[in-house]
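Fig. S4 source data, part A: sequence.
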Amino acid sequence: MALLAFSHATIRISAVFYFIRLFGSESTIRLPILARATPRLFWQQRALLTCMTMSATSVGLKFDSQIPSDATTTILVGRKQTLLSAPGEALPTVLPQSLWAPLVGKASNPGDMGGSASTLIATSDGPAATVVAAVLPEPCSRHNSPFRPHAMSALVASPANEAAAACDHASIVVVLDDAAHAGGAACAIARAFPLYSRKKSSTAKKGGVTVSFFTKEGPLPAEQYPALRTAADGVRLAARLVDMPAEELTTTAFVAEAAAVTKRLQDAGHKIISEVISGEALRDGGYGGLWNVGKAAEEPPALVVLSYVPENPAKTVCLVGKGIVYDTGGLGLKSKEGMCGMKADCGGAAALLAAFEAAVASGLGGDALHVCLCLAENAIGPAAFRHDDIICFLSGKTCEINNTDAEGRLVLSDGVAHASHRPPKLPGVKTQPDLIIDMATLTGAQLVATGKRHAAIVTNDEQVEIASVAAGKLSGDLVHPLPYCPEFFRKEFKSQVADMKNSVKDRSNAQSSCAANFIHENLNEEFSGSWLHVDMAGPAFVDDRATGFGVAFVLALLGVAPFKP
């Protein structure tokens, strides 16, 4: 990996790369030497190692066309009529046919979340088997996904996790109305089994869960399962990163996670080009947004770029993710209540890193794909950037800071400027990307505008907007468009001493669209491709748990398996 940081940060990041390459076996790591050299780094990475050890004892999720014969709990999920017409091979062999219709009827619930019912079946040669009918709700409006992913995750989570906690083997059988919904259903189920936990009980051995898919016509073909597994693994990876506290997922640790993704893809035979610009190298390279946001933290800010470039790519897509590993608000300090949960402010970068891995692993055809991770901790301290400071982005534009808690747009501005730079900074790009997608937990106003289930999107291309809404419904990662109208929003950032301020003057004027426009202003002036902004502040984190939102959406938008037309 080419490191472009010319400061102490380079040495520290290199040490982590060495650490990560070896952490498959803790005994092979020279822990005392690392501990003596950089004690804080040692303990942070020790915590990361502990987390990964715990992840190994979380629920094992398997996707297989063969329903396991040793499952002690079987959960069948689908719409009422679909379950009633499910092929016989989808039903547990221990279940008398006469009990199935009454069980489905008992589970049917007219509410918005569906319902479930279970029964115990005596077996001749082992413990009683539990059969659960999980009936999805019938109501489904035009802005929802037809396979009801919100209900699917909730209905399978409790019985499957209970079985796994008891070291039993659970089977989830999904009966679909349409085989095209398999990818979204796989990702919805993956959300029910988070990887991260630091509970004492999380070190206990867990049972496994096997997921199988059917339509009314029969089982889903076995050749579709690898892509389903890859997408689901991506959702769980993104959720794990967002669930990790900042004491473990520092910027340095996030760089190491990106290095691990690179290694996995390279080991699988994919050619990945990687670059890290870190610490003072960001300042010296003109990345004023990233540098100023992250310069007060103990771990340095970084721009991580991973690239997959086949020969003569048909098109080029660049993903740009906000990766604020913790957001205190900076000197504009958040309240006690407002700061809790700010570990989730890296949700955009987490989703796009996982989406990059899944897309390359499943196959992009002849397209090139890049991901830029904008990593920083918005900390307080003597070196923190201040209100009234004027910073300069890679785009060359200057910004007067009037809100240090509006930091996400600052790091993303450098990210999109890097992605659209002339001459190109991305490897293999001759002129410019065809599409730049930035993704972030950017504004609280997004929840007001589109709610907790739909991310907000802003784009300069109507066809991308239409495709994004369709991709949201297909993947289950729902999105809804906001206005793209720069001429209405530029005035909100007017400054007397710089090209712009970083926070709006009028908070009643489409704040989320304004924030998106701020990022758009830092695209290269010659950029003529499509740009899509995704603000997923609401759907990234639900009930104190990360959802892995964004992974499935990107795969569906790119047309990658399991969402390939």
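Fig. S4 source data, part B ends here. The chain has three domains: 6-55, 60-220, 234-558.
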